[in-house]
Amino acid sequence: MRYVVDTGALLSLACSSYFSFLFEEYEITTTKEVYQELLEFAQYNDFLGQQAQKILKIIREKRLITEQSKEMLSLKINAAELSIFSLGKEKKYMIITDDMHAARVAEQELHLSSRPSFYLFLLLYKKKRITKQQLMEDLETITKQRNWMTGVLYTYVKDIIESQK
Amino acid sequence: MVETIQFSMRIEDELLRKVDEEAGKEYKNRTELIKEAVRSYLEEKERKIRLKKLAAELWLKGELSEKELKKALSDQEIKDIQFGKNWVEAALDEIRR
Question: Is B4 within the bounds of a domain?
């Protein structure tokens, strides 16, 4: 399975201590539009800017590749989101995004499913590559660092996992 | 000392005059006044976002009704959060299988 990941999800994943490890475990791709957004983030030397610089380094090392779809879908979501949904649909890649709005619009209008970024961490945990404690620490870090909607989403996941034995 | 970045901006005469007048009253220069106004604007936005986040988290825990949620979030945000709840649960179920 190959995963196509958008800017927000890459930034969430980059907050993790196991970010680099993800590229050893999974085949991950992104798009030119996402790359452009990352360049914009990387202009600032704050926390998210530093995460963007980390992702750009992985792109330069060709561990994260960029691909383009032949055609763009018609959906009212931003260009970078549209590019990952278009590529995911065309190449049958699993779409990873933390943008609940884009995920909802794509599912309701085109029946295109996607997964939130924590899905990749949960897979690592399921494959016993990381411990539950490491998983929870990562979820906690991402909850604190990302925008409010992504934060809500990660808090919800964390609460569900914590409530399970 | 915090590193700062210099940039230029265009501003209408009348607004700049008001900035300078206000800065004068408060014994500040225009840069200080503009920085303070931006900080205050961002703090207010962050306060509203904290409320939205809290409302959404309480709704997800079943501790806030949809009627109450509507007071804090826009219709589109409510649709997104409602979708997000099912989306997260579906992803967790998929992993458990």
Answer: no
